Amino acid sequence: MNIALNNERMTVNSLSGAIWRWHFYAGMVFAPFLILLAITGGIYLFKPQVESILYKNYYYVQAEGQKLPASKQFEKVKESHPDGQFTRYKPGVEGNRSSEVGILDGNKSLTVFVNPYNGKIVGELDDTNRFMAQIEKLHGQLMVGKVGDLLIELAVCWGLILLITGMYLRRPKDRKGVFKRLILRQKRGKRAFWRDIHAVTGFLMSLGIVFLILTGLPWTGFWGQQVQKIGTNTGTGILAPVWGEKPKSTEPAKGNVSSISIDEIVRIAESRKLYPGYDVYFPDAPKGVYTVQVFLPKSTDEATLHIDQYNGKVLSDSRYKDYGLLGKAITTGYYLHIGAELGLINQIVGLIICIGIVLIVVTGILMWWKRKPSNKLGAPPQPKNFKMEKGLALIIVIFSIIFPLVGVSLLFVFLLDWLVTRRIHRVKQWIG
């Protein structure tokens, strides 16, 4: 019986050692990405407040009399940008807000802010240089497009693995152990103190971090697109006209290729009782359509209209209530993710989780730095006589199927370990 018990302990210790080693490697590689995501995400949560301060002189006007038709406001913009091509129009959300007219002027995408009461231009911004646009690019693509998007997706997936492995390593052995995981042992030295902050923060924030990861993943370039396609093909997702292929305008009558006016599009949008502050996107091709879209403030307000540019017929009208179960879950999750669904409370809770992620990562780095030998990476020792259990192998396979980028990265690490780490003595010594 004692032999069996000792063998069981050896297996558990060996398994914990292997998991600790993976936890360490994943943390070392993806720590910078996770810190960046947490900081940029925490800032983006407060986009409305930040932009209201940064662009106060552009956003707000004195309400006086009747608003000018959109076409009259466009005439004023055309005077200042005679070669500009109209791309977007956004009426003011409230009576004291300016209208926004998007134009493509040369190779620049600009937003021109117009006083809707007198048509005066109150300012303009280059869309690519807006502060929150830069934050969003950092958060979603690392400023490098598709490659950055894939790296972010990979980092987020490994963040989930880090959380799971960390929870396993610090799992309580009994009910009393649960409460011990919530106590900071200040009298056991600095390293134990940082380890407790690392573990306690991870324990308390675990559900919130998982929620942020799962609500952000559906909007990533690879994994997110596959989920969106599954939802569309099964009829449970976001409707295809919202994010997929748009309907097309009818062939115009011969000799008559003029589009209907922006005033008519506004009239149609108002008649459909959309939430104020919708965006009108202009057709980008002869068979293109006007797209009227409501994106904020809440998921239930979301709407997308596609309108024939020649006859004003509404070709599709997609509302949140029309989404399938998966589509509603993805949409509501995203609005919670960016702090919009529940207002200030949503923003504060999101900020706390983001701060928690930074704290977890930073304390993990501090623990490594305090224990690592000089001139070595200081990885946890490789467990002796470790054999991959069938259950663990099955979990790895399932995780790799659900998150293909994780599977590819695991294969790369296994090959690197087999071809380099195990065969080159100096590398093996440096890693530890």
Summarize the topology.
Layout: H1 2-44, H2 47-54, H3 56-59, H4 70-80, E1 85-90, E2 99-105, E3 108-114, E4 121-126, H5 131-141, H6 146-169, H7 175-180, H8 190-216, H9 223-234, H10 240-243, H11 262-271, E5 279-281, E6 289-294, E7 303-308, E8 314-319, H12 325-337, H13 343-371, H14 390-402, H15 404-421, H16 425-431
Helix pairs in contact: 1-5, 1-6, 1-13, 6-8, 8-12, 8-13, 14-15
What does this structure look like?
The N terminus is likely disordered. Strands 4-3-2-1-5-6-7-8 form an eight-stranded antiparallel β-sheet. Helices cover 56% and strands 11% of the residues. By secondary structure, the protein is an alpha+beta fold.
Q: What is the overall shape?
A: elongated
- Run of helices and strands: HHHHEEEEHHHHHHHEEEEHHHHH
Residues in β-strands, percent: 5-15%
Task: Please outline the major beta sheet.
Answer: 8 strands, antiparallel
Query: What is the tally of helical segments?
Result: 16
Compute the average pLDDT. 86
Write a short abstract of this structure.
This protein is α+β, with helices and mostly antiparallel strands and 432 residues long.
